[in-house]
Design goal:
The protein is an all-alpha fold and 196 residues long. It has one domain (55-192): Tetracycline Repressor, domain 2. It contains 9 helices and no strands. Keywords: DNA-binding, Repressor, Transcription, Transcription regulation. It holds the Pfam family TetR_N. InterPro entries: BetI_C (IPR039538), Homeodomain-like_sf (IPR009057), HTH-type_TetR-like_transc_reg (IPR050109), HTH_TetR (IPR001647), Tet_transcr_reg_TetR-rel_C_sf (IPR036271).
């Protein structure tokens, strides 16, 4: 259940709940996340959380939808005008502790999509948005003569799988795979570029 009916007050409350959920997930992960953790990050009452969301799962499904909306804004930003720029944004060379903590929680939520249809539906939308953006950017890079004549769909799937794999490995091992993965992605993107 979502109490967001489009009114300014409800929209502001929804945003505050989503931001509190972000902080609570970053600090606790999904396994240890409770409504109380979210309430501790929320400036208003715990009862208001329950007014808007019947269960933690309802809140988390809405949270994934909120993330999709926020990522759509990032992916459609004016500064994202090439495949390399998107890779810079999504797969930075250095990841601060806050983003690393959140990515670990995000991976945990994604794992739950294997057995939760509502989560799977949201992550399917998330992946489609990201993939469509990558396909379009690669297509534009080919049309502008920056890349060789590559299949944008194959290139997008390769990048998406590589980025997802790097995020999974970073969140689930003690190895620093991001630096090596980014070097590999940079080399692969350089191999797509035209020399003339």
């Amino acid at each position: 259940m979502s109490g967001d009916d489009g009114e300014g007050g409800c929209q502001g409350t929804r945003e505050a709940i989503m931001e509190a959920t972000y902080r609570a997930l970053r600090d606790n992960g999904t396994a240890d996340l409770t409504i109380q953790n979210i309430a501790d990050e929320f400036e208003k009452s715990k009862s208001l959380l329950y007014y808007h969301y019947e269960t933690k799962d309802d809140l988390l499904v809405e949270f994934i939808s909120w993330l999709i909306d926020r990522n759509a804004e990032v992916l459609e930003g004016d500064d994202i005008d090439s495949t390399e720029r998107l890779v810079d944004r999504i797969l930075p060379r250095e990841l601060d502790d806050e983003r690393a903590g959140f990515r670990a929680a995000f991976i945990q939520m994604r794992a739950e999509a294997a057995s939760d249809a509502d989560y799977r539906e949201q992550f399917t939308l998330f992946d489609r948005l990201f993939r469509e953006t990558l396909v379009e950017l690669v297509r534009q890079d080919v049309e502008r003569g920056r890349f060789h004549d590559v299949d944008p769909e194959v290139a997008a799937d390769t990048l998406l799988s590589t980025i997802d794999g790097a995020m999974l490995r970073q969140a689930t091992t003690d190895d620093d795979v991001m630096t090596r993965t980014r070097e590999g992605v940079d080399r692969w993107l350089a191999s797509l570029q035209r020399d003339d």
